[in-house]
Amino acid sequence: MVTSVRNSIRFTLLGIAAGLLTPLGVVLYSLNTDTPADGIELFVATAASAVVTLGIAGWIVGRKDDRLAEQNRALRAMTERLAAISTTDGLTGVPNRRALDQRLEDELARSNRYGTQLAVVIMDLDRFKRLNDHHGHMAGDAVLRQVATILDQEKRRGDFVSRYGGEEFVALLPHADGNAAFAWAERVRARIEASAIETATALVQVTASFGVASTAPGRSGRGSAAELLGAADRALYAAKTSGRNRVESADPTSPSSSTYKAVG
Asked: What is the residue range of 45's domain?
């Protein structure tokens, strides 16, 4: 507020100075001529004085506006960088849990509004602690980055993949029912299993377990983010307790991983 008042006073004084300098230029011109100035000469003198005075004033104001615009651009760029940092997982480069929470709320609202389906897939790397203990945390980090790359490559347009925490990742699949999400998870599972991931010490192979849940029309108990994630997490637990390296679905109409492999 103080800065605004000071700027107002500064520009007011500048305007007064411009208004005084213009007739002053005419007076000085008249004093320096031996003969009375005619109308054309007075017009030229007035115009020249006004052009110089107001031109300088305009340059000063424009320069201040240019600096302000440059500062605003820098501030917007910094804000965008900070927003990207706050919603991106530093290790894998995919969105983090904070970004997931916001996106899931948005997708659920869209699903409820338009009556479309939304599927959630939770993935957890199998025996990841053993890998860290045997090969070291640097190797574990390399595995997480490669798995994040696979997930990011496999997502469709409009899908969203994020790191959920630790060795867990979550994928949001809009407009996908339980069966479509199950097929997507099974494809990712097979690709992870077949990948040899290069670390600083050795090539390692890992497997992952998946839990799938969807918001099919008429399916109650999954109207909130917590309920949908909870259903997918229970399916993930079933995959873990059923032998790992498999996909399980919370939807009764979806196949189990063993059934999918038998018919696939």
From this structure: 2-86
**Do 167 and 131 touch, CB atoms closer than 8 A?**
no
Annotated catalytic residues are 167
Q: Do residues 127 and 203 share a domain? A: yes
- Residue 243: strand, helix, or coil: coil
| Residue spans of beta strands (DSSP E) within the chain | 118-125, 160-165, 168-174, 197-198, 203-204, 208-214, 247-249
- The percentage of the chain sitting over the pLDDT mark of 70, rounded to a whole number, equals 66
Q: Using one digit for the tens of pLDDT, what is the confidence trace for 234-250?
A: 999 999 999 999 999 99
Same domain, 10 and 65: yes
The whole-angstrom separation of Cα 122 and Cα 7 is: 56
Pairing relationship of beta strands 160-165 and 168-174 according to DSSP bridges? antiparallel
Is 92 within the bounds of a domain?
no
In 3D space, the residue among 220, 206, 57 whose CA is nearest the CA of residue 127 turns out to be 206
Residues 102, 229 within the same domain: yes
Structure tokens at 10: 């500064």
- Pseudo-torsion of CA 122, 125, 127, 133, nearest 10°? -130
pLDDT, mean of residues 46-57: 66
Q: What is the CA radius of gyration of the chain?
A: 34
- Which stretches of 81-167 are assigned E, i.e. beta strand? 118-125, 160-165
Domain assignment present for residue 67? The answer is yes
Which of 35, 53, 86 is the endpoint of a domain?
86
* pLDDT tens digits for range 31-43: 666 655 565 665 6
